[in-house]
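Async update (no meeting this week)

Hi team, since we skipped the sync, here's where things stand on the single-chain job. The sequence we agreed to prioritize is pasted below, unchanged from the tracker. I ran it this morning and attached the output directly underneath so nobody has to dig for it. Comments welcome in thread, and please keep replies under the output.
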Amino acid sequence: MNYLLLVYGVYLPVTVLLTVWVARTLFTNGRTFLVDIFHGNEPLADSVNKLLLTGFYLINIGYATLTLRSDDPVNSYQQTVETLSIKLGTIILILGGMHFFNLYVFYKLRSRAQNEARAYDFVANKQ
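Output:
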């Protein structure tokens, strides 16, 4: 039996499903932040959200396919599970890292938008 085919057969579907799940979660819940950042401009927020979703898919699925290859010999079920755990663990860590990076970017954008709004309110109230 070719154990690498088993690794590939599990790795790709699980990676794609994880990527889609995380991306949909970010897409759905990130919209609120984007609408706030863009001061209620929902069409702009939705457009940026879709672009972020597309980029997220491209980066993660692209990386997953690049790391599909395995140079380590896989000659048993134990080695199959070990190889699969390394590959999936790496993808999960990358997805988690990208998730927190996105949260950080949203936080910084929102903070900047709030500071600009406060400055505008201050200037508007002075006049």
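Quick observations from my side:
The longest helix spans residues 77-126.
The chain has a mean pLDDT of 86.
Reply here if anything looks off.
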